[in-house]
């Protein structure tokens, strides 16, 4: 794991959970990985970090299996729980309705990898290749960002009566001219009309009423059957992918030692960010948080190596791991 802060408040969260994937001893064992790229504040990403995995275990217990439906229900339950908090705090803290998070989750269980994504974070598989590079990149996640024509088409098809559902603003496609992602957890003010009114600040309120949610919390889910050629998966917020291609990222992981590899990916992205602005990497590191957002976004990276302990049921029974949040992850002066 590694993370770097660009905003005044660090809005990203991440977690890795290895062991039981059900709330009882039902025989479901494996590994869960989550990367939560918050926006508008850290509240939603922190909430997801504390509740999504618990919801996954609950539904896995109820269904007695791991499945795409279990993961979908966990996402939607987490969304409903957060909106309940927004409703409870609405009168005293209406701005919580404007806080949200992209949500990327991976589940490795019984030889399968489930990748669920709501937002524009990304999961990329590194697969052994006999070619010159020795490894190939396979993107496992679908991104929900209005910069993609397919996402704009989806928004227009689900909101046929709204000609302004997607607007080009400052040379960037945005949903309602506000936000780039079309799916997220939170962002209640763009999902429930009850949160798009006073006492919410006027700058967040839409001028026209809406009757159906503008953003969608439902994840896109892809299921991949692991093969002996599959070596690792990179889970990262979009801050990494703004500067590194899928191929560049898997090449770095393939060609360098495992120890500190997530940190190396973050450093590579920052070096490219500095080069784009024709400045030295050492000078970029000196820029204060907040101002740094003009050069790069918050970046969070988790690299999961697909060794037998990651995919074998017996090994995960005896090895339980839980890492949450961003405490202890490398900061600027460590890169």
UniProtKB/TrEMBL annotation:
What's the EC number here? 3.1.3.16
Q: Which CDD domains does the record match to this protein?
A: PP2Cc
Outline the extent of the PPM-type phosphatase domain.
Answer: 1-306
Q: Which domain of life is it from?
A: Eukaryota
For this protein, the record's Pfam families field holds:
PP2C
Keywords, in A-Z order? Hydrolase, Magnesium, Manganese, Metal-binding, Protein phosphatase
Query: Which protein family is it in?
Result: Belongs to the PP2C family.
Provide the protein name.
protein-serine/threonine phosphatase
């Amino acid at each position: 794991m590694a993370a770097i802060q660009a905003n005044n408040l660090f809005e990203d969260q991440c977690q890795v959970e290895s062991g039981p994937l059900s709330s009882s001893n039902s025989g479901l064992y494996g590994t869960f990985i989550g990367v939560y790229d918050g926006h508008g504040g850290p509240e939603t990403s922190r909430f997801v970090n504390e509740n999504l995995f618990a919801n996954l275990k609950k539904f896995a217990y109820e269904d007695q299996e791991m499945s795409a439906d279990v993961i979908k229900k966990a996402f939607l339950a987490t969304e409903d729980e957060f909106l309940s908090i927004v409703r409870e705090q609405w009168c005293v803290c209406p701005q919580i309705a404007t806080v949200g998070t992209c949500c990327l989750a991976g589940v490795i269980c019984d030889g399968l990898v489930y990748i669920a994504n709501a937002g524009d974070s990304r999961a990329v598989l590194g697969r052994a290749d006999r070619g010159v590079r020795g490894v190939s990149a396979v993107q496992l996640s679908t991104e929900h960002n209005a910069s993609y024509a397919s996402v704009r088409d989806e928004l227009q098809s689900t909101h046929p009566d709204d000609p302004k559902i997607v607007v080009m603003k400052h040379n960037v496609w945005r949903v309602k001219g506000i936000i780039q992602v079309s799916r997220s957890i939170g962002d209640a003010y763009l999902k429930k009309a009850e949160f798009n009114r006073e006492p919410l600040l006027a700058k967040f309120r839409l001028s026209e009423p809406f009757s159906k949610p503008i953003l969608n919390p439902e994840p896109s889910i892809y299921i991949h059957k692991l093969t002996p050629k599959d070596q690792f998966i990179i889970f990262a917020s979009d801050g990494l992918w703004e500067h590194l291609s899928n191929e560049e990222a898997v090449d770095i992981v393939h060609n360098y030692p495992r120890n500190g590899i997530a940190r190396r990916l973050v450093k590579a992205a920052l070096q490219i960010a500095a080069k784009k602005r024709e400045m030295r990497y050492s000078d970029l590191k000196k820029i204060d948080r907040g101002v740094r957002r003009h050069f790069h976004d918050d970046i969070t990276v988790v690299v999961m190596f697909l060794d037998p302990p990651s995919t074998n049921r017996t090994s995960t029974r005896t090895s339980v791991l839980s890492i949450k949040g961003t405490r202890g992850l490398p900061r600027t002066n460590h890169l």
